[in-house]
Design brief:
mainly alpha, globular
Length: 237
């Protein structure tokens, strides 16, 4: 377990430096390290304990956020996001505006949606409709059918990552694939959770779909790494 402790000690300062400028990126860095350690470590109970603690923090996010704001560890705008998550109807024109407009878009999509390109909410109603809130526009235009289709595509991608990691020729290649899988899975889960108001707004994009050339470039580089590991797998005839 000592080597895993060293990894945690190396990861936390990096995640802390990233978090100072961008909380969302810090969460992703910690999440990737968590997933890779979970796969590499034989002892699983510490990870389940951390997961349970995370759920506890989410359950008491209001009081915890207020306390952290008072001692200066949480910025005022970050606490407003927690307030908007807990009660978006309390301030529908300011704090809760983005959340409510995204939920309106999801609700108006119905089963099959309004039609591709026929979204009304993206015409200035949903802030950052092309970035963080793109999933709500997908729900509005393609409905429940389109939303489930997108989720199934990501699940199939993660399934293929798991197959490649299980058959990788060495541990290093397997952990590379697990890291990429963790990155994409965390972003998908957090983005959909934010759009559906399951967690407070963290400003995380939907991989391969949200607007942003740099994001797509690095995601494609990660896919290249995975394909490189996959190319080294020897099939038994």
């Amino acid at each position: 377990m000592e080597e895993y402790g060293y990894i945690v000690l190396l990861t936390l300062p990096i995640a802390g430096l990233v978090t100072m400028n961008n909380l969302s990126s810090g969460i992703i860095v910690c999440g990737i390290a968590f997933v890779m350690l979970f796969v590499a470590c034989k002892v699983k109970w510490p990870f389940f304990s951390i997961g349970a603690a995370g759920l506890g923090v989410l359950a008491f996010a209001g009081p915890i956020g207020k306390a952290l704001t008072q001692i200066g560890l949480l910025q005022a705008y970050q606490y407003r996001r927690i307030e908007a998550w807990l009660n978006p109807e309390s301030d529908p024109t300011d704090k809760g505006f983005q959340v409510l407009q995204g939920l309106y878009a999801i609700g108006s999509g119905g089963l099959v949606g309004q039609g591709l390109g026929e979204s009304i909410q993206k015409l200035g109603f949903v802030p950052e409709a092309q970035n963080d809130m793109i999933f709500s526009i997908i729900c509005e235009e393609l409905g429940l059918f389109g939303a489930i289709s997108i989720i199934l595509i990501f699940l199939f991608m993660i399934y293929r990552f798991m197959l490649i990691a299980n058959n990788a020729p060495d541990l290093f290649g397997a952990l590379l694939v697990v890291g990429v899988m963790g990155h994409i899975a965390i972003q998908v889960i957090l983005n959909i959770a934010v759009v559906t108001n399951t967690i407070p707004n963290t400003g995380i994009t939907l991989p391969f779909i949200s607007y942003g050339g740099t994001s797509v470039l690095f995601l494609l580089m990660e896919m290249g790494v995975v394909l490189s590991v996959s190319n080294q797998i020897k099939l038994e005839v």
